[in-house]
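Researcher: We're teaching a course module on how sequence relates to structure. For the next exercise, students receive a sequence and then see the predicted structure as tokens, so they can try to spot secondary structure elements on their own. Here is the exercise chain.
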Amino acid sequence: MIPSVFSEKTLEVVISCVLAYLIGSISTGLLVAKAAGGPDLRQVGSGNTGASNVQRTMGWKYGLITFFADAMKGVISCLIALLLTGDQMACLAAGLFAVIGHNWPVFFGFKGGKGVSTSAGVLLFCFPWQGAVCAALTIALIAWLRYISLGSMFLLTSYAILVSLTYQGKWLPFVIAWSVVMALICIGRHHANIVRLVKGTENKLGNKTK
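Model: And here is the predicted structure for the students to work with:
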């Protein structure tokens, strides 16, 4: 089932998604590392440009800066879609493209992060209370087990479940499909982490990469 806005405002939706992808493609991790005189994140640690790798290679200060900047990419993308179309479903589509841009940025050789920070911004913007609940549970899980990767996958998976159970609008099939795709992208980007979690060799929160 396709939301009516996709047929009534096709051009606006397409523009929103293209802008969202371009915004998502701005690799704040690389920019923060360069501004701080740090390493090329693609050559150290996990090789990703997201907040987790920044934290492990450069410390908490720069990791948090990257996290919030990446989250704002998702928020700004959804806000632009809302202003252009006035429709929540367009916000979901734009948010998804922002995450895709973050993971596979056109400006940086399609080598980006894992999309968790940007996804967090999208989740909180599109479904605030569900996003807040899942974020709180995720923070508790990470504080307990100290695995950011496990917490990241839990965030998107629990969000998909909660949104699917609580959304009552007429576009439920679209919302379920969207939330599942968001979760699957996150899980897919963490495939190497899943292997390390199974082997018991996954890096824990607070450990810095040499």
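Model: If you want an answer key for the exercise: The first helix runs from residue 5 to 8. The chain has a mean pLDDT of 90.
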